[in-house]
Structure formats: C-alpha cells, structure tokens
Design brief:
single chain; alpha/beta; Rossmann fold; ten-stranded mixed beta sheet; 9 helices
Length: 303
C-alpha cells in the first residue's frame, strides 16, 4: 500500500489495522509507489514474490521467489475446502445497528420457512455468498469440494451452487465430472471458479490471464439486457468463449475492458454462471438479480 494508517476512525471499528495484522500475523508492505508497481505488472504479467525483513540479499530473495510454483496447474480448491458438510442459516449483516459483529441473524422473519434447499460446493466459498442465498429464502447445506454428485442428489435439494475459489480450474477433474453428472438433474448456479468449472464441464477450455482481474469497478455488459454492470472481481483464469459449443451454450456477459467472458447459460438445461462476484458488486445495476434468477430457475424446475 502507498500509506498505512496508524489510526482508526470508523464507528464500527473495534481495533486499528496494525493490531489486527499483528493478531493474525499478516505481513504488510507500505510506503511504495503502488502505481509504478501496477504498471510493471501490467507490462510483464503476474509475478511470484517473497517478503523479507531479515536483511537477506536481494539476489537470494529473487532465487527463492523463482522456486515458488506458478499458479497454472495448481489444484487449490481441495486444500481450502471445508472438511465436512455444515448448514448455514445466517443472513446479511445489518450495518445500521451496532455492534455490527452481532448482527448476522437470518434474513427471513421468525416463523417463516425457507422455500428452497440449496447444496453449495465449497471450493473456497465466501460467507457473503451464503448470506445472499439465505436472504433469498434458501436453506443452505455447504459440502466439501470432493463430495460426489450422487451424494449431493441424495440430499434432495432444489438446486446446486458452485462457489468461487483459488487456483487453476483445469486440474479440478473431480468437480468437472460431478457437474456433468448433475447437469439436467438439478438447477446449477456458478460464480468465479464455479463458472470456470461449468465451462469445462460443458466442453470448453480455460486459460490464464496475463495479470488477472482484481478489485472493484470492472465494467461488464449484460448481453441479455444491454445494461452495463460495475462489478467486483478476483480471478486469474477465464473461460475461452470460442471453445464452448454454441449449439448448447449462450454467452450472457462480457468484460468491457478486455472482451473476456463473464457469464454464460445453457440453452436448454437449468445452468448459468458468472465470472464476477455478484454479492460484492458495487453497482450500478445491482447484480443481486442473479440470486433471484437462481430462485426462479429452482421454481421452474420444481414444477
């Protein structure tokens, strides 16, 4: 970062950033020219790196950095996934009341029953996605990344969610096979890595971007509505739209910065996915409609 704040002024803050980083043993680099760093990465692509504070010579650090495996070819979802299944029933955080850390109750009023049961594959899932599913009246069961399609179908859910996650999608063969077995038998909604796995399951290919898409304010055009969505993203791989079978798959979203694929849907089966993170989109054109589309798909499939 360019400048590190030593103070904390937000009304929701419980401690300074320095205390938080110390408590979790998270290193931070500051007082550098971040714009120069971004220009360098855009020129040469994503880089491996190390952080050192013990005076190790630069040549030695460069050598150590080169020994770090590249992201391409790494199957990381299985490493970060949960070890066993669990249910999730917490809705979105209510920021209007304090203390905010205690405002994680379910979004559906007491006494009401949820309308849909969703099985969510955890490839590195974000909790806010689970909150959004609960906000849309879903009972959510989170399962480990390697849970078989047969086990998921036996749970009797109304739909399957494929989460975000780290690493290269191509080595995650078990997930691709599971999606193929689930295709047509239950509605499927994928985000980020889940989107890439859908692309592979439908016969497409993925490739690594030079420096990836990270942060907010990425313009994405919804080809179905003609509207532009300002999105949040965090990925280094994308689906090659030319590799998808056009007879079965429709491209629904495209990145306006570089023209890469940002969304697709199957033309006849209940599956759709997006590359960006709709639960974190800063707007305009709130991307939460995708969760509504998932609920609508589950309703139609139930009928």
């Amino acid at each position: 970062m360019r400048e590190f704040s030593q103070i904390s002024s937000n009304w929701r803050s419980a401690e300074t950033a320095q205390l938080y980083l110390n408590r979790h043993k998270i290193p931070a680099i500051w007082d550098i020219d971040t714009r120069a760093l971004v220009r360098h990465i855009r020129k040469v692509g994503a880089l491996r790196g190390v952080v050192a504070t013990d005076g190790t010579p630069a040549d030695q650090l460069v050598f150590e950095a080169k020994q770090i495996p590249t992201m391409a070819g790494q199957e990381l979802a299985g490493r970060v996934s949960c070890k066993k299944s669990y249910s999730w029933d917490k809705g979105s955080i209510e920021l209007a009341t304090a203390p905010w850390t205690e405002q994680m109750g379910a979004a559906v009023p007491a006494g009401e029953t949820r309308k849909h049961r969703v099985v969510a594959y955890d490839y590195g899932i974000k909790q806010n996605i689970l909150r959004m599913l609960v906000d849309h009246q879903c009972e959510v069961m989170v399962v480990p990344a390697k849970t078989s399609a047969e086990e998921v179908l036996a749970m009797g859910g109304d739909g399957v969610f494929l989460s975000n996650g780290p690493g290269d999608p191509e080595p995650i063969n078990y997930a691709v096979e599971n999606i193929r077995k689930l295709l047509g038998k239950t509605p499927i909604f994928g985000i980020c890595l889940g989107h890439q796995l859908c692309g592979l399951a439908l016969g497409g290919k993925t490739y690594k971007l030079k420096f990836g898409h990270h942060g907010s304010n990425h313009p994405v055009k919804n080809l179905l509505t003609g509207k532009v969505e300002i999105t949040a993203q965090n990925h280094g791989f994308v689906v090659d739209p030319e590799s998808l079978p056009s007879s079965d798959v429709e491209i629904t979203h495209v990145n306006l910065n570089d023209g890469t694929n940002e969304g697709m849907r199957h033309k006849s089966l209940p599956l759709f996915s997006v590359q960006y993170h709709p639960e974190a989109s800063p707007g305009p054109h709130d991307s939460h409609y995708l969760f509504q589309d998932f609920v609508k798909m589950m309703n139609e499939h139930r009928q």
